[in-house]
Design a protein that fits this description.
The protein is of the alpha+beta class. Helix content is 34%, strand content 32%.
């Protein structure tokens, strides 16, 4: 096996179009995730990641699939020293995760009557530690996304 895979499925009372908006609009992602994602949202478009006041852009940080409003995929962000410092990650851990094969995440949106089924699939380097970090991080992010779309307010930051 050449990867570890994290899969998370949730059902959200919203439309596919509104969920797509939540996945691709920077102001939206910042509300439920604390990360501002900016891109042209077309295949091969650069993806700019801003978190904790640090912006990360990298030629390998790109959109892989953009099939609105059904599927979105992109490579995971670059782990720079400045980003790590801003989120309180030590240089030893940052160096380890920066050496891993870049992971990718896919969001699949399926309409189901008055709701959508969102499946998030994140593929990782099997020998790496990013897998453990992200599998702990995805459930609260996706719960906050669901809450924001259903109530108008994200969950409070932990």
């Amino acid at each position: 096996m050449d990867s570890k895979t994290f899969v998370y499925v949730t059902y959200i009372r919203t439309t596919p179009e509104r969920l797509w908006q939540a996945l691709t609009e920077a102001a939206f992602t910042e509300r439920y995730w604390g990360v501002r994602l900016e891109s042209g949202w077309a295949k091969a478009s650069p993806l700019v990641w801003t978190q904790a006041g640090v912006t990360v852009a990298d030629p390998e940080q790109v959109v892989l699939v953009a099939d609105a409003p059904r599927q979105l995929a992109y490579t995971w962000h670059t782990f720079t020293p400045r980003w790590a410092e801003s989120v309180g990650l030590g240089e030893d851990v940052r160096a380890r995760i920066a050496a891993e094969r870049r992971s990718s995440v896919t969001f699949t949106v399926e309409p189901l009557r008055e709701q959508v089924k969102l499946t998030v699939t994140h593929d990782f380097d099997p020998a790496g530690v990013v897998h453990g970090m992200c599998t702990e991080g995805w459930p609260p992010i996706l719960s906050s996304l669901k809450t924001l779309l259903e109530t108008g307010e994200p969950l409070p930051a932990p």
